[in-house]
Amino acid sequence: MSEASRDNPGRGGRPVRDGFWLWTILRLTVTAVMVVLVVAVGRLMFYYFGFGPMPDRPQPVMAASEPERERVGDDGVVATGTVVSRKSKGIGSYFSGKVADLQVKKGQRVQRGQLLFQMDTSDLQRRLQAALANERRYAEATNRHRRERKEELGLLARDHRLLRSLIVETRKQEKYLAQQQQNSPIRLATSNSPWNVAELKSQLSASEEYYRKRQRAFHLAVVDSIHRQRAARAEAARLRKLMGQAKRHSPMDGVVTSIIAGEGHWIRAKTPIIRVDDPASYRVVALVKQQTAQPLDEGQKVEVELAGGGVPGKLEKIVPGWDRQLFYTWLWVKPLKPLDLRPGEEVDVVLPVEG
Q: Model's pTM, two decimal places?
């Protein structure tokens, strides 16, 4: 125990240990952090299960129909619903560019296979011509490398044959002179040949090494040209395919519900330009209270009110609500004549129940 601890007695006359206040502050900090986390988790759970409003919380998919949009009419309860499409296709371009020709208008009925729009292919044509030019250029380079390889390597091979023949002749001459020296009592003169076997072998080895290097260089050049030629050919084939896909047709029978870009507008690839919906897939989705949906049965006839009059419909599906719609019910109504409806449109559904 230090002298400072002995001079500073704690509670009950006991001395204070070293670091007491540091550990106390640390424990209080950890406790405060845990309390904050518990409160935050409790608040999130409270809002998640729908017992209170949470700011900036994403709404459910069908949140356009609010529970308060339900009133009592002359023929029963009138609930406001939203028209949704269960079969919708967005048709875009396979490549980025400008819309050259638009063949349909919004609200127009189309048949499967009908032309919707055509993209401008002038940029693709320029790229195709460049790809074809590259293909020809690399094909010529491949032929040139092969021709040069044949000529240069042929000359080097001829030099190798000459050197080998010189080596053989020089060895024969040296062998003959050696035999004459042994058989003759007098010393004969040495060979006047300017060639030496060791020097010839050194030249042959260097020439063969150079031959292998040039052969390797020509091989790489030919392979590179062939790869570039194939890449240019594949690019040309891809551009031809895209040009063949410049015209887009309707994938099904339906109605044009939206047109995002007009003629002359530049659009990115895969971006929907026209949306076609199948009216037979339209459904009116409404959210009502549980007590309103209790007397209803699936398959029951209802009426969908439009500006031009009522349209008969059938109650296709009854789905209990969840989360913030825990005490409400989703009603899926299938209109029997959906041609006048549009996705996202709000319409009234007359339910045969007493308010």
A: 0.61
Cβ atoms within 10 Å, residue 78: 19
Residue 90 near residue 237, CB atoms below 8 Å: no
What CA–CA distance (Å, rounded) separates 286 from 69? 9
Query: DSSP letters along 112-159, please?
Result: TT-EEEEE--HHHHHHHHHHHHHHHHHHHHHHHHHHHHHHHHHHHHHH
C-alpha 317/C-alpha 86 separation (Å) is 14
What tokens does 119 get? 């993209």
| Residue range 106-111: mean pLDDT, rounded | 92
Residue 201 identity (one-letter amino acid): K
Report the distance separating Cα 38 and Cα 13, nearest Å.
Answer: 38
Q: Which of 229, 225, 242, 245 is nearest to 132 (CA)?
A: 229
Q: How far apart are CA 275 and CA 91, in angstroms?
A: 6
Q: What is the DSSP letter of 343?
A: T
Q: To the nearest whole percent, how much of the chain has pLDDT over 90?
A: 40
333, burial (CB in 10 Å: exposed 0-12, middle 13-18, buried 19+): buried
C-alpha dihedral (82, 83, 84, 87), degrees to nearest 10 = 170
Q: Measured between alpha carbons, how far is 276 from 248 in angstroms, rounded to an integer?
A: 12
